[in-house]
Specification:
The complex is a heterotrimer of chains A (493), B (483) and C (95). Chain B contains 15 helices and 17 strands. Chain B has 483 residues and is an alpha+beta fold. In chain B, the strands form 4 sheets. In chain B, strands 1, 2, 7, 8, 11, 12, 13, 14 and 15 form a 9-stranded mixed beta sheet that branches. In chain B, a hairpin with a 4-residue loop joins β14 and β15. The mean pLDDT of chain B is 93. Chain C is mainly alpha-helical and 95 residues long. The chains are: A alpha/beta (493), B alpha+beta (483), C mainly alpha (95). β3 of chain B pairs parallel with β1 of chain C.
Chain lengths: 493, 483, 95
C-alpha cells in the first residue's frame, strides 16, 4: 500500500486499519491528498486550501500514534470541511463576498469535535452562497464542477448543492471524507449527484454552534463519504450534545458503526405513495424499484404508507427557510466584520454593503423571506407554512407507526449541466422535492449510490429514519449499499 | 379626575408606560458575559453578543427567575409557556439585526399595582404584561465628528419590559407609578432601579381626549431616564398636543425624544419608514416552559411588598396612609422604622424617622443604609423621652449629637449632663426663685392671666439649663401660685 | 398574489438591499412567480393546527448565571472594518 492513488482510494475504515497497523502514516495519507488537490484545482472544489495546517495535523497525529496515544478511529484521517463551518484562524466565507476575508477567532463545535478526534483538515470546500442552492453555481468563489461527466459528453456538470465542494472532493478522491450541512437536501442531493454517501442526522444530533446559519430550524451538519460505514464513523466524530446550542439534543451519541451489519431481515420499509408522482423520470422510478427489490431480497418487508402532505413540503420550505434566512443574514451589515461599502450615511452603508456583498440568489431569498414575515403577510405565508410543516411532521409520525425506515429516490434526476437550470428558480428548487420533507420534520436521512443513469451518471437512493434512530437508518443503508454494489468511479466525457 | 383646561374646554390625559428594567444578574440574558456597569468598551462582550456568524443564544436561568419573581410581585399571571421572538430592525448597536424579545406570548401576563398620590389617595394601575428581552449596545455620537462609535458591553443584557395599561391620567400619577414599580423591583431584588446608570428607563405613551371620547392618537416618548423627566416630558407633551388639536391640527402617531435641557419633546429625526419588525419565533430557541411547582417555590420566597407593608403599617401601627407610604417606599427604611417602633409608640417612632432622621439624612446626603444613627440607638432615645430621662426638646439636641458622633444616647446624656431634672427639691428651689423674682407676674396671674405661667416656666428652664421636667415644673408652679 | 414594484421597493428597504431601478420589474416578476407557486399552500386545511415551534422534541435548557465569557475585546473587533478606540464605527447617526 504505497501508491498515492491507492491511498486516496481507501475508505475511512480501511485507512483507520492501515494507520493502526502502521502500514501508512497520516503524513503519507495527507500528502497524497494534497497532491491530488493541486492537480484537481480546475474543479474549484476548495475556497481555501490549508496544506500547512494539514501537514501539521498529520504530523501531530503520527506523533500521537508513535507515543501510543492515538485518539480513535478518525485520528490521522484527512477531511475536507465545508466552508460554512467557522474554523479558528482560517478564513470562513460561506462562499459569500460579504464574508470574504473573515477569519473567525473561534472553532465550530463540529469541527472542534473532529479536531479532538485527531482528524486532518485539508481545506475549506466551496458551496452555494450561504448554502442557498442546489447546484453550487451561486458561490462568489465560482462554480464547482462535478468529477463525473455524461458518457460521450464533456460538458461540465454541477455537483449539486449546497455541499457541492464537499461532494466533489469526496467523489474525486481529494479527501477521505467531508463535512456537509443540510437544510433542505444540501448533503443528500449533491451526494446523489456525485455518487457518494451523504447523511443528514436528526435535527439536534450535531451542534449548530459555529456553523454559519442559513435556516436555523432546519440546518444540520452531517458526513459525506464513499461508504455507509465511513458515514457512520465520521458522524461519530461530529455528533454529540453541545450546551452552547439550545436545540442540541441532550443525549450521548451511540456508536453508529456498531450495528451496521445487523441486516434488514424483518425490517419494515415504508414506501410512500405520494412520492410516485406522475411524470417521475422513468430511470428514477426504475431505480426506486431496484431499491425495493434489494431490500426485500435481503429480508425486509415493504409497507405501503401515506405521507399526504408531501406535495406541500417544498412550498412550505421555500417560505420557512427564506424567512429564517432573512433574519439570520441581517447581521451581515458591514459594521463588525466582513465586506463593507463605505456609504455617506448609515443607510447607504447598509444597503450598498448588502447589495454588493450578497449574490443574486441570496438577495432573492432575503427578499422573499422579508416579504413573508412582513406586516399583513405573516399569517398568510409564514404561519401557514409552519402549520403545514406541523402536518408534514405528523404524517411522518403516523407513517412510522407502520414502518421502521422509508425508502424513496434522492433526486428527481441525475446531475445536470452548468447553467441548465440557473435561469429558473422554481425548476432549481424542485431538485429538493424528495429531500425537503424529512428536513421539515427534522428526521435523519441518507443518500446511498444506487446505480448509474443511462448517461452513466450516479443516482441516489434515499432512506429516512425515525428521529434519533440513526442506527437503524445506517443498518438499512448498509444493506442497500451491499445490494447495489456500486463501484463506479467518476469518469470524464 | 385630573383634567387639563384648554381653550375649547377640559381635556383628559391618557398615559401608558413601558418601563425597561435591567434584570439583576451576573451574566447576560443569552451569553455568559458580565453585566457590570462601566467597563472598558467591548470588554464585556462575548462572540454571541457581537453576533459573530454561527453564534447561538442559551438562556440564563436567573433572568427567567427574576422575571417570574417580578411578575409575582406585580400580582400578575405567570405564563407557564412563553415564546422568544425576533424583532427585526437594523441599527448599529443591534449586532444581530434583531432583538430577541417576547411578542405574542410573554412570560408574565396581566397584573396590577397600587400607586400612592400626594393627597394620600391611592389608585390601581393595570399591568398589561412583562416580557424578557435583550438590551442593545451603546452608540456614542460625540467622540468623533464624522462617526458614530459602537460599544457592545450592554448588548444582550437582560431587560424586563413592564407595560402598563393606559390607566394613568396625569404626570403625577405617572411619577407615582414609576416610583412604585421601582420600589417593588428593589424589594424583590430583581432590578437595582438605578435610573442614572440606565438600569431603569421608560417609554411614555401620551395622548389627550375630551372626557368620554375614544382614545386620541398617542405619541411615544422614548427612553426617559428619571422620574422628574417623565413628569416634565408629559407636561410638555400634553400642552403640545392640546394646543395642536385646538389649533385645528392632528397628533401624529410618532416617536419623540425628551430633551432635558429644554424640558421639551421633539420628533426623532432618524425615524424612517414606518417600522415593520417582522416578529417571528426565534428558531434558535425553544419555547420557555415553566413548572407550576417552580413558580410556587419562588412565590414562597417573596418578601412582604410595599403595598402589603403599607396596609399593615396603617392597620397595625395606626399610621396615616401618607406616612405609611413614605416609610415603605424603600425596604431598608421600612425595616429601620419597624426596628425603632418595636415595643414603642409607633407614631412617635414614625415621627422621629420621618422628621429628625430623614432631615439629617437629606442634609448630609446620606443613605439609610449608612445612617450614623442605628435603629436601636434611635429607639433608646425614644425610650429616654418616654421615661422622662430627657425632655422632648433636649432629645432633639441629643439626636443631633448622635448623628454627628454615632454615640449611644445614654453616653451623650450622661457625659454632657443632659439628663432631665425630676428631683422635686431642685425644681421647687428654682420655682421659688422664679416666683420671688417675678412679683408683677404673680399679680397678673392672680388677676386671671393664666398665660403668664409660661413666663415662670421659662425662668425655671433657664435656671435649670432646660433640663427640668416641664410637667413637674408646671405642676409645682400651679401648686405654689394657686395655693 | 402578484408582487408589485412598490412592494419590492418596500421589502428591499426593510431588508436594507438596494435594488437598481432597472432590476425592479424583473425582480417583481420573479418574486410573483415564486409567491404564486407557494400559494398552493392555501389548498391545505390548517384549521386548528398549531404551527410547529420546533422539530426537536426537547425542552429549552437553562444555563447557570455565571460569568463565563467576555474579556476578549481583541477577538470581538479583530475583523472590524474600521475600529476606533476599541469600538466599531459607522457614519455619524443623527437621532
Amino acid at each position: 500500500m504505497t501508491s498515492a492513488s491507492d491511498l486516496r482510494d481507501l475508505t475511512i475504515a480501511e485507512a483507520r486499519d492501515e494507520l493502526a497497523a502502521g502500514n501508512v502514516s497520516a503524513r503519507e495519507l495527507t500528502e497524497a491528498h494534497l497532491a491530488a488537490i493541486e492537480v484537481a484545482r480546475d474543479l474549484n472544489v476548495f475556497i481555501t486550501e490549508t496544506p500547512d495546517r494539514a501537514l501539521a495535523d498529520a504530523d501531530a497525529s503520527d506523533a500521537r500514534r508513535a507515543a501510543g496515544e492515538a485518539l480513535g478511529p478518525l485520528d490521522g484521517i484527512p477531511l475536507a470541511i465545508k466552508d460554512l463551518f467557522c474554523t479558528d484562524g482560517v478564513q470562513t466565507t460561506a462562499a459569500s463576498h460579504i464574508l470574504e476575508g473573515f477569519v473567525p477567532p473561534y472553532e465550530s463545535t463540529v469541527t472542534e469535535n473532529l479536531r479532538n478526534a485527531g482528524t486532518v483538515m485539508l481545506g475549506k470546500t466551496n458551496l452555494d452562497e450561504f448554502a442557498m442552492g442546489s447546484s453550487n453555481e451561486t458561490s462568489y468563489f465560482g462554480k464547482v464542477e462535478n468529477p463525473w461527466q455524461r458518457e460521450g459528453d464533456n460538458r461540465p456538470l454541477v455537483p449539486g448543492g449546497s455541499s457541492g465542494g464537499s461532494a466533489s472532493a469526496v467523489s474525486g478522491r481529494l479527501c477521505l471524507g467531508a463535512t456537509g450541512t443540510d437544510t433542505g437536501g444540501s448533503i443528500r442531493q449533491p451526494a446523489a449527484f456525485c455518487g457518494i454517501v451523504g447523511m443528514k442526522p436528526t435535527y439536534g444530533r450535531c451542534s449548530r454552534w459555529g456553523i454559519v446559519a442559513f435556516a436555523s430550524s432546519l440546518d444540520q451538519a452531517g458526513p459525506m463519504t464513499r461508504t455507509v460505514r465511513d458515514a457512520a464513523i465520521l458522524l461519530g466524530g461530529m455528533a454529540g450534545f453541545d450546551p452552547k446550542d439550545s436545540t442540541s439534543a441532550e443525549m450521548v451519541a451511540p456508536d453508529f458503526e456498531a450495528r451496521l451489519e445487523g441486516g434488514v431481515r424483518g425490517l419494515r420499509i415504508g414506501i410512500p405513495a405520494e412520492y410516485a408522482v406522475d411524470g417521475m423520470n422513468p430511470e428514477i422510478a426504475a431505480l426506486w424499484d431496484r431499491g425495493k427489490a434489494w431490500l426485500t431480497d435481503a429480508g425486509a418487508e415493504l409497507v405501503d404508507i401515506s405521507l399526504p402532505h408531501t406535495k406541500y413540503a417544498l412550498p412550505a420550505y421555500y417560505i420557512i427557510a427564506p424567512a429564517e434566512a432573512s433574519s439570520n443574514l441581517a447581521r451581515y451589515d458591514g459594521v463588525r466584520y466582513g465586506h463593507r461599502e463605505d456609504g455617506e450615511d448609515l443607510t447607504s452603508l447598509y444597503e450598498e454593503t448588502r447589495a454588493s456583498g450578497f449574490g443574486q440568489e441570496v438577495r432573492r431569498r432575503i427578499l422573499i423571506g422579508t416579504y413573508a414575515l412582513s406586516s399583513g403577510y405573516y399569517d398568510a405565508y409564514y404561519l401557514k407554512a409552519q402549520k403545514v410543516r406541523a402536518l408534514i411532521a405528523r404524517d411522518f409520525h403516523n407513517a412510522f407507526e407502520d414502518c421502521d425506515v422509508i425508502l424513496t429516490p434522492t433526486t428527481p434526476g441525475a446531475a445536470f449541466a452548468m447553467g441548465e437550470k440557473s435561469d429558473d428558480p422554481i425548476a432549481m428548487y424542485l431538485n429538493d422535492v424528495l429531500t425537503v420533507p424529512a428536513s421539515l420534520a427534522g428526521l435523519p436521512a441518507i443518500s446511498v449510490p444506487g446505480g448509474l443513469s443511462s448517461e452513466g451518471l450516479p443516482l441516489g437512493l434515499h432512506l429516512i429514519g425515525k428521529a434519533f434512530d440513526e442506527q437503524t437508518l445506517f443498518r438499512a443503508a448498509q444493506a442497500l449499499e451491499y445490494a447495489a454494489g456500486f463501484d463506479s468511479r467518476p469518469h470524464r466525457g | 379626575m385630573t383634567l387639563i383646561q384648554g381653550r375649547t374646554g377640559d381635556w383628559e390625559v391618557v398615559i401608558g408606560l413601558e418601563v425597561h428594567a435591567q434584570v439583576t444578574s451576573k451574566s447576560k440574558l443569552f451569553s455568559g458575559a458580565s453585566t457590570e456597569f462601566g467597563a472598558e468598551p467591548n470588554t464585556q462582550v462575548s462572540l454571541v453578543d457581537a453576533a459573530m456568524p454561527g453564534m447561538l443564544p442559551v438562556i440564563n436561568e436567573k433572568a427567567v427567575e427574576q422575571a417570574v419573581r417580578t411578575g409575582l410581585g406585580l400580582n400578575a399571571q405567570i405564563n407557564l409557556k412563553s415564546i422568544f421572538d425576533r424583532k427585526n430592525y437594523f441599527y448599529p448597536d443591534l449586532p444581530q439585526g434583531y432583538q430577541i424579545s417576547q411578542y405574542l406570548d410573554p412570560v408574565v401576563g396581566k397584573g396590577e399595582i397600587e400607586i400612592d398620590l400626594e393627597d394620600g389617595s391611592t389608585r390601581t394601575v393595570g399591568i398589561t404584561r412583562l416580557h424578557l428581552e435583550q438590551d442593545a449596545g451603546k452608540s456614542i455620537h460625540d467622540q468623533d465628528p464624522r462617526k458614530t462609535l459602537v460599544d457592545l458591553n450592554r448588548s444582550g443584557v437582560a431587560l424586563m419590559e413592564i407595560v402598563s395599561e393606559p390607566d394613568i391620567r396625569s404626570a403625577e400619577e405617572a411619577g407615582a407609578y414609576v416610583e412604585k414599580i421601582r420600589s417593588i423591583l428593589r424589594y424583590l431584588g430583581t432590578c437595582d432601579g438605578n435610573m442614572q446608570e440606565g438600569s431603569m428607563r421608560a417609554d411614555v405613551n401620551v395622548s389627550v381626549r375630551k372626557p368620554g371620547d375614544d382614545f386620541g392618537t398617542r405619541a411615544e416618548i422614548k427612553n426617559v431616564n428619571s422620574i422628574r423627566f417623565i413628569r416634565q416630558a408629559i407636561d410638555y407633551e400634553v400642552r403640545r398636543q392640546i394646543e395642536l388639536i385646538e389649533d385645528g391640527g392632528e397628533v401624529d402617531q410618532e416617536t419623540r425624544l425628551f430633551d432635558p435641557d429644554r424640558a421639551e419633546t421633539r420628533s426623532m429625526r432618524s425615524k424612517e419608514e414606518a417600522h415593520d419588525y417582522r416578529y417571528f419565533p426565534d428558531p434558535d430557541l425553544l419555547p420557555l416552559e415553566l413548572e407550576q411547582s417552580w413558580v410556587d417555590a419562588i412565590r414562597e420566597t417573596l418578601p412582604e411588598l410595599p403595598d402589603q407593608k403599607k396596609h399593615r403599617f396603617v392597620d397595625d401601627y395606626g399610621l396615616s396612609v401618607i406616612d405609611a407610604g413614605t416609610l415603605v417606599a424603600e425596604r431598608k427604611i421600612a425595616e429601620f422604622f419597624e426596628a425603632v417602633a418595636e415595643g414603642r409608640d409607633a407614631k412617635v417612632a414614625a415621627n422621629w424617622v420621618m422628621g429628625e432622621l430623614f432631615g439629617a439624612l437629606n442634609r448630609t446626603d446620606t443613605d439609610i443604609a449608612t445612617s450614623p444613627v442605628s435603629a436601636a440607638q434611635l429607639g433608646q432615645l425614644i425610650d429616654f423621652i418616654s421615661d422622662g430621662t430627657v425632655s422632648n426638646r433636649l432629645a432633639k439636641n441629643v439626636f443631633e449629637i448622635m448623628f454627628e458622633t454615632s454615640d449611644d444616647p445614654k453616653k451623650i446624656v450622661e457625659q454632657r449632663g443632659m439628663k432631665q431634672v425630676t428631683d422635686a427639691g431642685a425644681i421647687e428651689a428654682a420655682v421659688d426663685e422664679a416666683i420671688a423674682a417675678g412679683a408683677a407676674q404673680v399679680d397678673q396671674y392672680k388677676g386671671g392671666n393664666v398665660k403668664v405661667l409660661g413666663w415662670f416656666v421659662g425662668q425655671v428652664m433657664k435656671a435649670t439649663q432646660g433640663k427640668a421636667n416641664p410637667q413637674a415644673v408646671n405642676e409645682m408652679l400651679r401648686k405654689k401660685l394657686d395655693g | 398574489m402578484a408582487v408589485d414594484i412598490e412592494t419590492v421597493v418596500r421589502v428591499a428597504r426593510l431588508a436594507r438591499l438596494t435594488v437598481p431601478e432597472g432590476d425592479l420589474e424583473t425582480l417583481a416578476g420573479e418574486l410573483s412567480n415564486i409567491i404564486g407557486w407557494i400559494e398552493q399552500l392555501d389548498e391545505v386545511d390548517t384549521d386548528g393546527v398549531e404551527p410547529l415551534a420546533s422539530v426537536a422534541d426537547i425542552k429549552l435548557r437553562w444555563r447557570a448565571d455565571e460569568v463565563t465569557d467576555g474579556g476578549i475585546p481583541d477577538k470581538v473587533t479583530s475583523n472590524a472594518p474600521d475600529p476606533q478606540n476599541g469600538m466599531f464605527s459607522v457614519p455619524k447617526v443623527v437621532e
